[in-house]
């Protein structure tokens, strides 16, 4: 049987001390304790599998700790209706996930799904958005896509203090938001309280892969299981090839500003402005191709603030109390990647740039598939095989 | 409970804390005026409504938030007094849109 040994270039390959350490066996290993890995691990534990969740330490890149917190549907899957369906399915699973996590952990993930709007600050933006939404509705076919393009006057009734520069918005009933940090904490706590093993400071640096037989090396010891799920965010790019998988993800930087707490004004989230349960207003979020660079840049922060102040002039009166940047986990076409290795069956990948939105699907739809050992055909279009199609000359 | 040290500058600037006149030295902070006024609290926290008075006096704890001259949520310890300044309690989260 084929067996491949490997080591990541930047990690110690099979340090001798590990050879003497005991190997911890389990039903399944999940690599990566961000939102994607934690949601899947929680789901796998729920399916009764003995699950080990391996994670890096505090210096890791972690989109899950720096994101915007939207549970967002309306614009997902332009030209890829299967992504719209998967996203909407996840938004539908979210209330069940939130209730389950609250019951198990007492943590309120602050989920609200009142619908959401994408604000347009010019006629051009409004027209482009309208065309895009109409096209997506056509692509949705019988599945349908409910949305409305709303003009300024009606919108001003929905959103207090709307700025004069806003010409209109697209609205859909599916959109919402949640606290991404509460979600991450709740997933971890639910997982460990149900008997799952979370191992931090356990960057996977080497191991062996064979069909339904995996062994990985970490600073925290050796782990073995017949199944492994790669959910290491940006780390998947290096890990996947050694398992016969392909996840060509790249970092894309986003910067976010947060205001002081204010009494609730906004009844629903907008794509780049949302008021949290505690009252802070989050302003986001840039899309920058700058590699593995998590610095902030004043010109981009100014742009984010400016757009927010044009949308809602009263936001300009609020103090900014925090700001940060984080790296999205982006596939070349912006869609998630889900795969099972053909070369080494039992090895799965999961990557996406909307880990909050898709947490419902990951915990409650994807994890059961992985537990069964087969990904449903609905996930076929998300295979990384889509990147192998030769480009037309 | 709080008094200005006698050897420092004389209290010559009159400000109003919750409407009551308080004399403080030139260059003192609005937080000092709040403490001299003897209020039980200058703000309540937005989520649990717990009472707060200025604590760190150096801009990090935000326990001194007050409405100063009509502007909500100002850190009183970071604001120097001016004659006639009006310092009022911050009740919970500020209004963003009035
Ligand atoms: C600015 C910004 C705004 C965003 N806004 C939203 C939003 O509004 N809504 C939404 O749904 N999504 C949003 N996202 C996306 C969302 O944050 C990500 O999709 C999600 O966090 C990805 O989770 P992940 O678990 O794949 O990755 P990560 O959070 O990066 O976690 C990966 C984990 O894997 C670990 N790891 C890596 N390599 C290894 C290894 N070799 N061994 C062991 N462990 C390893 C790391 O330590 C890390 O903990 C946003 C992202 C950003 C950056
Ligand atoms: S007293 Fe701490 S910030 Fe003002």
From TrEMBL, chain B:
Keywords: Oxidoreductase. The keyword Thylakoid does not apply. It comes from the Bacteria. GO terms for molecular function: iron-sulfur cluster binding; oxidoreductase activity. Pfam families: Fer2_4 (PF13510). The keyword Transport does not apply. Signal peptide: none annotated. This is (2Fe-2S)-binding protein.
């Amino acid at each position: 049987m084929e067996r491949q040994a490997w080591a990541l270039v930047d990690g110690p390959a099979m340090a001798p001390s590990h050879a003497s350490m005991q190997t911890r066996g389990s039903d399944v290993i999940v690599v990566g304790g961000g939102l994607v890995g934690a949601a899947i691990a929680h789901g796998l534990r729920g399916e009764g599998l003995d699950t080990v969740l391996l994670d890096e330490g505090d210096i890791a890149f972690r989109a899950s700790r720096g994101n915007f917190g939207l549970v967002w549907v309306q614009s997902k899957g332009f030209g890829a209706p299967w992504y719209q369906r998967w996203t909407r399915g996840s938004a539908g699973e979210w209330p069940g996930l939130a209730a389950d996590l609250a019951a198990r952990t007492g943590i309120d993930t602050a989920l609200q799904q009142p619908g959401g709007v994408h604000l347009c600050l010019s006629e051009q933006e409004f027209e482009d958005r309208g065309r895009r939404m109409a096209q997506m509705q056509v692509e949705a076919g019988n599945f349908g896509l409910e949305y409305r393009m709303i003009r300024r006057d009606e919108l001003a009734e929905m959103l207090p203090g709307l700025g004069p520069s806003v010409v209109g918005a697209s609205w859909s009933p599916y959109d919402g938001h949640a606290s991404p940090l509460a979600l991450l904490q709740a997933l971890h706590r639910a997982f460990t309280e149900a008997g799952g093993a979370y191992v931090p400071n356990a960057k996977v640096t080497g191991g062996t892969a064979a069909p339904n037989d995996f062994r990985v090396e970490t600073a925290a010891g050796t782990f073995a299981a017949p199944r492994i799920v790669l959910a290491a965010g940006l780390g998947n790019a290096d890990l996947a090839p050694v398992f016969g998988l392909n996840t060509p993800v790249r970092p894309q930087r986003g910067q976010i500003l947060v205001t002081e707490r204010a009494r609730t004004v906004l009844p629903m989230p907008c794509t780049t402005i949302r008021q949290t349960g505690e009252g802070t207003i989050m302003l986001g979020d840039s899309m920058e191709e700058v590699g593995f660079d998590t610095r902030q840049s004043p010109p981009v922060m100014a742009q984010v603030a400016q757009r927010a102040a044009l949308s809602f002039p009263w936001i300009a009166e609020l103090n900014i109390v925090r700001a940060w940047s984080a790296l999205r986990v982006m596939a070349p076409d912006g869609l998630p990647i889900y795969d099972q290795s053909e070369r080494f069956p039992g090895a799965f990948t999961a990557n996406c740039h909307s880990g909050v939105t898709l947490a419902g699907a990951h915990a409650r739809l994807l994890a059961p598939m992985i537990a069964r050992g087969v990904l449903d055909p609905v996930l076929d279009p998300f295979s990384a095989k889509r990147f192998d199609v030769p480009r037309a000359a | 409970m709080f008094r200005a040290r006698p050897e420092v500058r004389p209290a010559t600037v009159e400000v109003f804390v919750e409407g009551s006149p308080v004399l403080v030295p030139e260059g003192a902070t609005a937080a000092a005026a709040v403490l001299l006024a003897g209020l039980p609290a200058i703000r309540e926290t937005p989520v649990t409504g717990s009472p707060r008075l200025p604590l760190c006096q150096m801009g990090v704890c935000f326990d001194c938030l007050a409405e100063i001259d009509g502007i909500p949520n100002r850190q009183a310890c970071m604001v120097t007094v001016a004659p006639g300044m009006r310092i009022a309690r911050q009740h919970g989260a500020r209004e963003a849109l009035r």
